[in-house]
Specification:
Two copies of one chain form a homodimer. By secondary structure, chain A is mainly beta. The first copy, chain A, contains one helix and nine strands, in the order βαββββββββ. The mean pLDDT of chain A is 94.
Chain lengths: 119, 119
């Protein structure tokens, strides 16, 4: 992981939606690629903000009081403690940046919880 | 800064090359946009890694032992303590992510040192 990272190459290695994979690290943060399609689960991260950068497609980050629609070249920071539920109509490619120990389903847990592999 | 961030809009607000601006925060990290053209200065950050994401153009991150050429949709993490000097032939748009207290010229200092404004 000491070379540059090409996001398109990494997304091509991903299998299904909401199966995240780690493509690199910055200090104690992980750089995570994930394909989204359909709706994820409502959850929050009480200890950390979470940065979403949309590379392809369109991501709707549902908050309890509004939807934030994020397209390619756009990013959004979900503040810590704020409930959110990502959804995407079409397959959407996301780069997520968050602390290494962040769990994808936050406080919600359940069967969508995944420990990401490194690719 | 509680809404989504459109990088193209932010880059359009930037004046000259190597005048960074802060477009958001994630925890104790800053999200910085900067246009590069020409060569910056050799420097290192002894306390932190530094994440470069290229949005437009082509960035050559010169290291002492090699050059890393990073294009749109690619990213590179300069490890802490590693000397580097970015350069770009054409105007290149970069998203940088690093701790809030990181100085753009690292240990080098000098007249290229800038305290970024928020935009």
């Amino acid at each position: 992981m000491d070379d540059k990272i090409n996001l398109s190459e990494k997304f091509s290695l991903l299998p299904d939606a909401y199966q995240p994979a780690i493509v690199g690290y910055m200090n104690d943060y992980k750089l995570v690629v994930v394909k989204t399609q359909g709706e994820f689960v409502w959850h929050k991260h009480d200890e950390t903000d979470e940065l979403f950068i949309v590379v392809k497609g369109e991501l709707t980050i549902q908050l309890r009081d509004r939807d934030v629609v994020v397209g390619p070249g756009e990013l959004f920071v979900v503040p810590k403690g704020v409930e959110h539920c990502p959804k995407a109509d079409e397959e959407t490619h996301i780069l997520l940046i968050e602390p290494r120990d962040t769990v994808n389903t936050g406080d919600a847990g359940g069967d969508r919880t995944v420990v990401p592999v490194e690719i």
